[in-house]
TrEMBL record, chains A, B:
Origin species: Actinacidiphila glaucinigra
Domain HTH tetR-type: 17-77
Name of the protein in its database record: Transcriptional regulator, TetR family
InterPro entries: Homeodomain-like_sf (IPR009057), HTH-type_TetR-like_transc_reg (IPR050109), HTH_TetR (IPR001647), Repressor_TetR_C (IPR004111), Tet_transcr_reg_TetR-rel_C_sf (IPR036271)
Assigned keywords, A-Z: DNA-binding, Transcription, Transcription regulation
Length: 226, 226
DNA sequence: CTGTGATCGATACAGTGTATCGATCAGTAC
DNA sequence: GTACTGATCGATACACTGTATCGATCACAG
């Protein structure tokens, strides 16, 4: 082996510039495209043309990356409109809309306290718009709307995924779910449930979300006024 | 090497009896003790004194195991009491209670469709107890209560975990969170939020859950009667 | 030119879910 | 009894994960 053959010079002409924001954006793109389980530090690093350990100079670890992703998307969740009811309704709808654009959000929302800057800014906007409401009532009201939105959106995403998992085709899913339920109901163990599933009108996701939200907003309005 | 030294006879005197239920129970014990991330097929197998691949004779994979765990706990979630409001309230409280006993449930609830036998049996019990309600209204009402319960309970667990993560001590957590918020609020970017956090009474988890639930139940009662 | 402190990333480690496939068994046919 | 068959089981292996360690490399201070 030739002694004077030096190993390739480190070849670090332009160390790819990096920042928390670039990392978070790359992670979000990965999650949007292929789901949360496609987000690994190695893949994020690859996308950014960087070696994995480099990321640890900007983030503490994967958990923090997930937190940062959630907070980044919180920038899109803002109430609009006027009047208490409209503000709260739009808050819930904005949450749902954000989850539609970032399905992985359903897996993370509510999983950890939301104290990032964008989440706090969203909270500020809501609380400010609820000006005039009894100060002791504000947090419970906002918390309730958030809780409903998160739970409802999780169920919605879960159903959508189950559909896709059985082969991309909605009709086929309805059929296979239907036949499974019919077989189960044929045992006679769930008579009341069977009646409802068979006889009730099947609402689409939009209506289901809005009906539940209206229940909640009705109850809130009755206590804090409009 | 001695040719007549046979390798130890397979030493399979009593192949540990196994079943889906044993596997699921072992997994639940692990999750109860150390959280969901402590549930791995290898650890479950170890606890059952079995080699990992053996499990695949009873379950299709880890995802199915998680589904089975959730359905098993659904056996504990049943409405009690009489009257529509009381049935729905107890449903939500039962969900919350189950999560208190199995904190990992907060990570899974709502994440996938609940079509297992115990979940369906719970649905049957609720629907049966709502006898007399307009058939088209039953599912939206139950879905709304479930959505609220799941979302609320996730937030509650998230807060509890954040407390524990900063060192087991609640006072210290309150202090560190408080100082973080104070520092953040000192920037003046969240004036409305700051006012509410500073001036409003801080409710404990029980009250917060019940207040939000009452909002929702009020709204429901106004539409479907009591 | 010579330290020196910071930065970076190759390597390694312990862990994961699960596909593969040879070893081993009970049961049946002769 | 022996020979075959089909089912069962699990050792091994693979690809992948998050991240700790630590030597190599750099810009810069003296």
């Amino acid at each position: 082996m030739l002694v004077w053959e030096r190993p390739e010079p480190p070849n670090r002409p332009v160390p790819a510039p990096l920042s928390r924001e670039l990392i978070v954006r790359a992670a979000i793109r990965l999650a949007d495209a292929d789901g949360l389980e496609a987000v690994s530090l190695r893949k994020v690093a690859t996308v950014l043309d960087v070696r994995p350990m480099r990321l640890y100079g900007y983030i503490a670890g994967k958990e923090e990356l997930l937190d940062l992703m959630v907070d980044a998307v919180h920038a899109e969740i803002r109430p609009v409109g006027e009047g208490r009811r409209e503000v709260l309704r739009s808050l819930a709808e904005a949450t749902r809309h954000a989850v539609h654009e970032h399905e992985w959000l359903a897996d993370l929302l509510g999983g950890r306290p939301q104290l990032g800057p964008h989440a706090l800014a969203g909270g500020e906007a809501v609380v400010a718009a609820l000006d005039g409401v009894d100060v002791d009532a504000v947090m419970p009201v906002v918390a309730a709307v958030n809780a409903y939105a998160i739970g409802a959106v999780r169920r919605e995403v879960a159903e959508r995924r189950a559909e896709r998992a059985t082969g991309m085709d909605e009709k086929r899913w309805q059929a296979s779910l239907g036949s499974y339920l019919e077989r189960t109901f044929a045992t006679g163990r769930f008579p009341a449930l069977a009646t409802v599933v068979r006889d009730a009108a099947h609402l689409d996701a939009d209506h289901t979300f809005r009906i539940g939200l209206d229940f909640l907003l009705d109850g809130i309005e009755a206590r804090i006024g409009r």
